[in-house]
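so im writing up the methods section and need the Spy/CpxP family protein refolding chaperone record in one place, dumping it here so i stop losing it
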Amino acid sequence: MKRLLMVCVAVLAVALCSSAFAKDYPHSKKTPEQRVERLTTMLNLTSDQQAKIKDIIIRRDAEMEPLFKSLSEADDKEEQREIKIDILEQHQRYRKELNDVLTDEQEQKYQEFIHSRMQGQKIRKKS
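--- predicted struct ---
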């Protein structure tokens, strides 16, 4: 049951992660610079925060790309589940690193944004 919950959270995290930064360009991947620009506009980031977040995004993309490729190539359900758990763990680490750079107010605003995105995804899936 605990593993099933982790898989569900992983799927949600992957969906959120892949679409949270792709609002304006649903079929193209935004560059790290574009994502930092969007976060800067949303959260009023300082130049120091921008540099740190850009580094986090670049590192995250480099770590996640092989996982997503492995997931798309995996045939076995068990293997897919394990990869999704790895993706979830990476995503959780990414969110923690990002939150460590943000102020409490920025973190709260970012969490509200993530929550609203998740609600929007739920509504679109029901339609």
